[in-house]
């Protein structure tokens, strides 16, 4: 169960992505590459199946039948973001010589979900973790057992165990079924996944099941944030619509909002509930920038992994490797661009001016260090060249002199503090 397709970005798509944008066509190309990657990882795992060969062969047959039945819907299921999260975790365990049956059996569950999407009947044994039987992308059934059977009949999924039957229906919640919730705005929807067993890896624990009232608050903020993007950054809204699929709520510390993107999972990120619609909009753009660059890195290296130089990043207190600094600069180009556009909102103008001035100065500082690095590959240099053009256009935007001066002073102060903390400049 592998893919031999070679995915390459057309030059025009690369240039758009390299400048910090891209458009729907570029995002579609990145998503196609992720499907290809997921299939390759699945093939790797099937070769190292930790259970009976007959069980593995049944999974291979179910996946192949689903793909032949409806290739487009099959790709949509296999390309889901948290499939990438699961695959990375499962492959890491296999490489360490510790393949887990629960990881392998998650693939059996995924095959049944693909079957339901493509009209293929079947059944498979799936794991039950702490009373939760995962149906990938749809939710979890609450089962008092160690294993269960996930069955597909006429496009409907049901979990069976010891005479208990639980219907796995999206957006239908009962005493035994916890579906993945959705955040909606206009004709767009995102999954708000607080149940998937492979949703961790963000350096902050994922939140447990959110109360309905909390989900309602997320919904209100998301709808307002999406409206801001649609009215003031339509090109960003198009990108997000094309590629962002899932949000994972993270545990809150009561001090500050946090967000993070998993390197191997395109189109998903974790976050605590943003304090405002504007911050939500900025966070959506910020973290999707990380997803875009990570997906590009799956296709081409941007930096030399042997380069050990460490750099100053205005948004971090620790010295950063070149790859980390490049990620930060790429993400903050999106942050600066978002605050630039939000200056048009009367209630946000003053705050947006300050945030825009700060973010563009941070991008300029980080990008200048990258431009001086010998560790960039040819693709990395092409990316940086496009980022410089975009950054210069941001620097050319008029900002009140006092705000621009304050951003420059803040940047210099942070650099002094960083030097005091880390010693002499490393770059």
TrEMBL record:
Q: Please indicate which superkingdom the organism of origin belongs to.
A: Bacteria
Q: What is this protein called?
A: HEXXH motif-containing protein
Q: Which organism is it from?
A: Asanoa ferruginea
| Source organism phylogeny | Bacteria, Bacillati, Actinomycetota, Actinomycetes, Micromonosporales
